[in-house]
Amino acid sequence: MAREKRVVKGLVLRETDTRESDKILTVLTGEMGKISVVAKGARSRRSRVSAAAQLLVYAEMVLSESHGWQILSEASTLELFPGLRQDVLLLSLGSYLAELTDAVTYSGMETAQVLPLLLNALFALGNLGKEPRQVKAAFELRLMALTGFEPLVDACAVCGQTDPAEPMLNVVHGVLHCGGCRQQGGLSMPLSPAALAALRYILYADPKRLYAFQLEGEDLRLLEHASEAYVAAQLERGFRTLDFYKSLASALSDPGET
């Protein structure tokens, strides 16, 4: 009996070489959540699915189930993000965004909002030329919010002030507080008023306008450091791709730039 086939659209978050010329792909879809896909012969030059079986490729995939595995039989690429692939710094950042997404999603999880978030971030980097540090911070914070790690930033968690003096984000407890309001335990990262406004915008804005804010200089540095520290504290882990992106960004930056 012929296997039932299903057509889905998905983005490859991870690719793993396996026996012979096959690959196992971790694919983020809107319909099926995050799934593991066997791409038989994907490493062969004659493979019809090799173009789609690559990291950060968005494709339409024809799948059939066998012994609990999703088998890729046909695929057509929808977006390769060429602007991303032509810039090693952007590609390394895109790889980090994919690894972070992989870390906070799981099989069976509802990912209908997560997939467009990642696709829009990659498009903003590779096609729109948005500031990479701004995209990175916005993506990190919005992804954490969508996956159950949203910080509480409406007001100081201690005194209730909606516009805290010398605002700080406690990245362990996930709350905002004034610089003068003591928090018991955890690590707090300083924010400027502009960085706090940007953080609130990121958490509550229309997803289609997530990157429609401007932040630069010290304000962007504070937001970037706070968002990165928040991810590390909440997930209690680091990321190899993030380390590579940061080392590359440091090597490519101008002398004296932080």
Give a nutshell description of this structure:
With 258 residues, the protein is α+β, with helices and mostly antiparallel strands. It contains seven helices and eight strands. Helix 2 runs antiparallel to helix 7.
| Tally of separate helices | 7
Q: How far do the termini sit from each other? A: 62 Å
Helix content bin:
25-40%
Give the low-confidence spans: none
The radius of gyration over CA amounts to 20 Å
State the secondary-structure class: alpha+beta
Major sheet description: 5 strands, mixed, barrel
Shape: elongated
Mean residue pLDDT: 93
Strand order of the largest sheet: 1-2-3-5-4
Strand and helix order: EEEEEHHHHEEEHHH
β content, as a range? 15-25%
The count of β-strands is 8
Task: Give me the secondary-structure topology.
Elements: E1 5-17, E2 23-29, E3 34-39, E4 58-66, E5 69-79, H1 82-85, H2 88-104, H3 114-126, H4 132-146, E6 168-170, E7 175-177, E8 188-190, H5 193-204, H6 217-235, H7 240-252
Parallel strand pairs: 3-5
Antiparallel strand pairs: 1-2, 1-4, 2-3, 4-5, 6-7, 6-8
Report on the architecture of this protein:
The protein is an alpha+beta fold and 258 residues long. 36% of the residues lie in helices and 21% in strands. The chain has 7 helices and 8 strands. The strands form 2 sheets. Strands 1-2-3-5-4 form a 5-stranded mixed beta barrel. Strands 7-6-8 form a 3-stranded antiparallel β-sheet, with helices on one face. A hairpin with a 5-residue loop joins β1 (5-17) and β2. The longest helix is centred in the last third of the chain and has 19 residues, at 217-235.
